[in-house]
């Protein structure tokens, strides 16, 4: 240090003594802390701060030593810290130096040339915000209430259910038992994680590893559920679903997407009917082979011996046997056989009934007598006068394919709801119902929300999605346990089909299935009126049901 | 328009709350019972005589889509398998309110009427 050329005597500082960085608070790092370190003054950030790194004393740099620090240009230097002239000593009163004043309290104000914004500012006076960008004007829109974020809070019961589901997913267990948890609702978020369930494969020696699809079994019995949790319909590998004693009033059509479902139990609910879509799981080749649906307060036909004439025409309304699946050598499952249907109930978009026939509303309590529904012959089709007068295309729409298709444009209600449902979650759609929204028919929206929650609804005739079905009717079918076996004898294949009717009495044999159409043209096909002698064939059903019928 | 009161114009004008005017076929508007009632002959309503309907609750962007729907409905009245009209998601709720206000599909439209 001694052979280092000394700097000229430093003049007195020309600026007020302030901290160089405006940061007056002491650093907490003890090694660098010096009570007088911030006594130097530099209001501007343009002044360089440098240290004398070339100090040979730094070679044995020890605790307490500090680098020399200088602020500003060299010719008006004074050491930045009081001890920087000889950092080892830290002498405050060096001869020939001005005694340093105690550091003043920091003043909070903006240093105009610093470019650094310090603690306290005046109100921003920047003109940045006034610089208007040349943007297109926003689309004018109604003052709609902002949708509230979903309440992510699950009820304590759902938390329990979620814990069970998580444990099952973690351990790869396929049996998910959520029964008797007191679930009033079941959020989709609880159910959704089940789709990720992958069973842990059993690895054995000398057996090649094989990927196995899970077969998830979900038990939800004895929970006071009011609504079918729509997310269940998305669990592709669900094989067993038990919804026994759960107070459901309606099953959604989306249940038909559970193609791997083998066993479904919906007994002891408040179901008035089963969804017509369920019939897709009850045809030859489908996996479903166990269906428990009694007891339920099902609608019953008033008349038990309707004429069977025109059934084939009616079945052609839907593509029932569109893609027959191969049955293999033997197949066990469920099939149905059509018995009768009710008249069609027509609605307008506001959900008021236009036809004379109407089904009792779902929330109405039904006595055994009011559950009896009239039937309509397959060659009859009552269409309200207003609709019949306006739609001359009821006949015209029968083209070569013998299928009725909607004529004309889809209603704007339907289109708007469809667009809304694509973009919004059910709870977001739900706020439209609230009072401040200027809609006259909140029922329509409520219905759409319900359909949305349950996983969507498709028109049974034209298969388009619909949020506001305009036609509705029931069909009564009997459910048959069916066994088909094929054997080859003498080069000739023989198919033996065994049918056993489910149900203990006549009432239980008539199972109602609901059909919903998206437009007034989506109605059952009308069979041609029978000639008088054909009407006699009304009791065909029993002869068909001989315990084994053979066909080759 | 008011001059030939005996023979009403084939076209009507719909005016949004921000002043956009849409002129379209009278027959295309009969899908809305609300508009049909406004334009009905025999009543001395201003709309019926001038053929101009103002909608103080419907903005131009929404009314444009409504008018597009009227045309779409009119064009496809008797057609099978009509492709769906595209509805922008941003205004679907406003359209729902507008459709509700205009009473679309609350009654079956009678094509013979207004033709």
Automatic annotation (TrEMBL), chain A:
Transmembrane segments: none annotated. Residues 37-51 have a biased composition (Low complexity). The keyword Repeat applies. Residues 543-552 have a biased composition (Polar residues). GO terms for cellular component: cytoplasm. Residues 1-61, 73-108, 530-552 are annotated as: Disordered. InterPro entries: LRR_dom_sf, LRR_domain-containing. Keywords: Leucine-rich repeat, Repeat. The keyword Repeat applies. It comes from the Eukaryota. This is Leucine-rich repeat-containing protein.
UniProtKB/TrEMBL annotation, chain B:
Keywords: Nucleus. The keyword Nucleus applies. GO terms for biological process: ubiquitin-dependent protein catabolic process. Residues 11-72 form the SKP1 component POZ domain. CDD domains: BTB_POZ_EloC (cd18321). Its main location: nucleus. Pfam families: Skp1_POZ. Signal peptide: none annotated. It is found in: Nucleus. One of its GO terms (cellular component) is nucleus. InterPro entries: ELC1, SKP1-like, SKP1/BTB/POZ_sf, Skp1_comp_POZ. Belongs to the SKP1 family. Essential component of the SCF (SKP1-CUL1-F-box protein) E3 ubiquitin ligase complexes, which mediate the ubiquitination and subsequent proteasomal degradation of target proteins. Controls sulfur metabolite repression, probably by mediating the inactivation or degradation of the metR transcription factor. This is Elongin-C.
């Amino acid at each position: 240090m001694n052979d280092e050329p000394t700097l000229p005597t430093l003049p007195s500082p020309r600026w007020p003594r302030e901290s160089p960085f405006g940061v007056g608070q002491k650093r907490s790092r003890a090694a660098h802390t010096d009570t007088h370190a911030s006594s130097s003054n530099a209001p501007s950030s343009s002044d360089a701060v440098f240290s004398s790194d070339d100090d040979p004393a730094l070679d044995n740099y020890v605790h307490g030593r500090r680098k020399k620090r200088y602020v500003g240009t060299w010719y008006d230097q004074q050491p930045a810290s009081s001890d920087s002239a000889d950092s080892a000593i830290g002498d405050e009163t060096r001869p020939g130096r001005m005694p340093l004043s105690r550091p003043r309290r920091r003043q909070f104000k903006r240093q105009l040339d610093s470019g650094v914004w310090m603690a306290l500012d005046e109100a921003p006076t920047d003109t940045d915000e006034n610089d208007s960008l040349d943007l297109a004007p926003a689309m004018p829109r109604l003052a709609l209430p902002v949708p509230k974020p979903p309440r992510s809070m699950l009820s304590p019961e759902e938390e329990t259910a979620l814990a069970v589901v998580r444990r099952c997913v973690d351990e790869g267990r396929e049996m998910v038992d959520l029964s008797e948890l007191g679930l009033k609702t079941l959020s989709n978020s609880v159910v959704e994680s089940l789709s990720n369930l992958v069973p842990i494969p059993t690895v054995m020696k000398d057996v090649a590893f094989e990927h196995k699809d899970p077969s998830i079994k979900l038990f939800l019995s004895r929970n006071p559920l009011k609504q079918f949790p729509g997310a269940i319909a998305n669990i592709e590998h669900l094989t067993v679903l038990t919804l026994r004693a759960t107070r459901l009033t309606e099953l959604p059509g989306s249940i038909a997407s559970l193609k791997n479902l083998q066993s479904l139990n919906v007994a002891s609910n408040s179901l008035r009917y089963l969804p017509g879509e369920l019939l897709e799981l009850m045809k030859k080749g489908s996996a479903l082979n166990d269906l428990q649906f009694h007891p339920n307060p099902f609608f019953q036909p008033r008349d038990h011996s309707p004429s069977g004439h025109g059934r084939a025409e009616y079945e052609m309304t839907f593509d029932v046997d569109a893609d027959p699946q191969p049955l293999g050598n033997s197949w066990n499952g469920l099939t149905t056989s059509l018995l009768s249907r009710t008249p069609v109930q027509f609605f307008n978009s506001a959900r008021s009934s236009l036809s004379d026939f109407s089904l009792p509303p779902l929330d109405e309590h039904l006595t055994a007598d009011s559950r009896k529904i009239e039937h309509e012959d397959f060659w009859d089709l009552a269409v309200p006068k207003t609709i019949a007068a306006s739609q001359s295309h009821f006949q015209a729409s029968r083209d070569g394919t013998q299928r009725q298709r909607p004529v004309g444009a889809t209603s704007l209600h339907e289109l708007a709801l469809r667009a809304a449902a694509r973009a919004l979650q059910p709870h977001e759609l739900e706020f439209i119902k609230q009072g401040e929204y200027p809609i006259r028919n909140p029922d329509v929206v409520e219905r759409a929300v319900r359909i949305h929650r349950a996983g969507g609804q498709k028109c049974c005739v034209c298969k388009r999605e619909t949020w506001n079905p305009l036609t509705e009717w029931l069909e009564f079918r009997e459910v048959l346990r069916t066994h088909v076996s094929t054997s080859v004898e003498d080069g000739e294949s023989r198919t033996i089909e065994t049918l056993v009717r489910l149900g203990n009495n006549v009432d239980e044999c008539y199972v109602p299935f609901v059909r919903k159409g998206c437009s007034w043209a989506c109605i059952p096909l009308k069979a041609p009126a029978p000639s008088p002698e054909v009407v006699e064939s009304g009791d065909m059903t029993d002869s068909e049901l001989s315990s084994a019928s053979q066909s080759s | 328009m008011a001059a030939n009161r005996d023979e009403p114009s084939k076209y009507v004008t719909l005016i949004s709350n921000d002043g956009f005017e849409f002129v379209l076929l009278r027959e295309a508007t009969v899908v809305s019972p609300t508009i049909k009632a406004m334009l009905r002959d025999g009543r001395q309503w201003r709309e019926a005589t001038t053929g101009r309907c103002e909608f103080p609750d419907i903005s131009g962007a929404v009314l444009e889509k409504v008018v597009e729907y009227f045309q779409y409905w009119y064009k496809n009245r008797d057609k099978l398998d009509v492709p769906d009209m595209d509805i922008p998601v941003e205004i679907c709720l406003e359209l729902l309110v507008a459709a509700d206000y205009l009473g679309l599909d609350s009654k079956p439209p009678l094509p013979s009427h207004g033709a």
